[in-house]
Amino acid sequence: MSLYPKVRVDRLLANLGYGSRREAQDFIAAGWVVLDGVALSDAGQRLAITPDLTTRMRVQGAPLDPPAPLTLILHKPVGLVCSHREAGRSLYELLPSRWRRRVPALSSVGRLDVDTSGLLLLTDDGGLLHKIISPRNHVAKRYLATLQQPLRGHEAAVFAGGALILEGDTSPLAPATLETLSSTTAHLTITEGRYHQVRRMFVAVGNLVIALHRDRIGELDLPADLAAGSYRRLSPAEESAVFANR
């Protein structure tokens, strides 16, 4: 018995966004879907979704897109939103257009607002998404904040105290860690994901964030060689790093 799930070829292609099942059947009839060097002829053939399938299978001459589950690490630039429903350019425009039609869909693991850059994960694995964003798991997120005014020296104690209640909230924030880098720059590490939390925290201590960049989730750092607007598949070691030391 195979350890890997099996799926019809036409359904696989449709789920990966190549087109409808009818269009996938047309691809197969045209000889555009090749497995192990041989063109497939039966759209109903069931294939095992093995880890090497992307290297064994080609569609219109290109390697098959990665089947689910797929998790990406992305360097989000300023100016893009993280939701299909928000106005403005979406980070999903950075991906191949057919990836926006994948089933299950790729979703951002938490959000960075339009004016925030940095490390973002995208996944179609609902279990992994909820494991990362659940407050119960205390996955830390570190931000580099550039501030309008110099730090006054009391901020670290306020953020670490666990008693700060932001305007509009009814419960205090979990303790957060502030590391001063210069008079107007600091790393702030939080374990929650409230609306515009970092910006609102600095407003609460009389300052404004003029630039914000997330550079770490758990113990996973934004790779130095991943340029703004670039992405790649998250490795198993990197996924483990997300949950290290929690």
CATH class of the largest domain: Alpha Beta
Q: Low-confidence stretches at least 5 residues in length (pLDDT < 50)? A: none
Using the coordinates shown, work out and report the CATH topology of the largest domain: Alpha-Beta Plaits
The helix/strand class is alpha+beta
Radius of gyration: 22 Å
Biggest pleated-sheet summary: 9 strands, mixed
The helix tally amounts to 7
- The CATH superfamily of the largest domain bears the name Pseudouridine synthase I, catalytic domain, N-terminal subdomain
- How many structural domains in the coordinates? 3
Q: Beta-strand level of the residues, as a percent range?
A: 25-35%
Distance separating the two termini: 37 Å
Q: Provide the helix percentage.
A: 10-25%
Topology as H/E string? Answer: EHHEEEHEEEEEHEHEEHEEEH
**Number of beta-strand segments:** 15
- Globally, the shape reads elongated
Mean pLDDT: 95
The CATH architecture term of the largest domain is 2-Layer Sandwich
